[in-house]
Amino acid sequence: MMSTEYFVKRSLHMRDSGAQCVDVVGCVTDPNLQLADKHTDVIASESLRHAALRELDVYLTINDMILANPTEAKAKGASAFPKFHGYYLRKHRLHLIHEFCEEGDLITVFENQSSVFSENRTERQIRHIFTQICKGLSFLHTMCGIAHLDLSLENVLLTESGNIRICDFGHSERIGRSAMSDEARKLWPKSIGKRAYAAPELHEDCSVDGEKVDAWSLGVILYILVTRVSLFQVATVEDLTFCHMIKYGSKCALKRTGHLDTVSPLLVDLIASLLVIDPTERMTVDSALRHPWITSYNTKRSIVRRTPARRRLLSSSSFQPRCALQLKQASEGNRSRSCSESNEDTSIAKRDRSCGMTRHSYGAVLCV
């Protein structure tokens, strides 16, 4: 990938005094195409270098899965990630070129009250967004073998068409490791805004299950989507809501907040199942996709259009659908069989009485 293929249109934001930036770039071969260029100074710090290389590895892994089986990958949620266009290294900066999402991240969408996701959002709108996030994470876990470990509203982008794209894989880890690597712990964000999504086991020096960590973050995201308020500052005993979860259980503690009084019981159950403190008892992402709050609204009903020609045909006195004719013939056949069986029963009853026997209504023959 050559750097001369792209030109900067505008800068979006920068972090760490410019060590990590995101620009909107155009393509020389297609000037109307807008892409995002996330570039990192790989010699600024060891932690930034590890984050950039880890993110590149995730994008390449996702691309490999899509190329190996495009149909299966798309069905399992590969479309929940930005389309990766390539990468290049220039003047010790690693550039990652991927799809540009016009609406920005979900935090920006809420602040700007985007028309794609209205302020008075319903459970149907929330379900649409949340289901896409779940499918994307399921694809990342099952097909790529990767846990995100830093999922938040800031790391979920929204396209103009209302579809989500999960991004920022600088803290991701391969599933199956007994604990987070030293590099990952160094990279873990220190700001309160990001730690609010972190599972309680991440605040302890112990082994973690990456899939269950992502499931906890999903629960926090769903709670914020529904209530528009944060659940924790940090999931430790220093937080009052977290202490209530330890004392009363997740569901009771969530109800005590008073922010879920107007939502459906199924939605409360899903949030509570994702926010179980014990990771061994916590719901997985795949289980969340099978939860009734999601599956009960995914059933598609077939609708037969009543065109004018069809209405005239149905109202015609001479029209009898094939199924109606079959039912009529079956009914007449049953009636004729019923008459013949009745005559047969009468003759049998006469014969039984002549032999000194009686027949009960359920067909048993007894001696009298």
TrEMBL record:
One Pfam family linked to the record: Pkinase
UniProt keyword list: ATP-binding, Kinase, Nucleotide-binding, Serine/threonine-protein kinase, Transferase
Highest taxon of source: Eukaryota
Gene Ontology molecular function: ATP binding; protein serine/threonine kinase activity
Segments forming domain Protein kinase: 1-294
Listed InterPro entries: Kinase-like_dom_sf, Prot_kinase_dom
Gene Ontology cellular-component annotations: nucleus
Coiled-coil boundaries: none
Keyword Acetylation: no
Record protein name field: Protein kinase putative
Gene label: AlNc14C12G1502
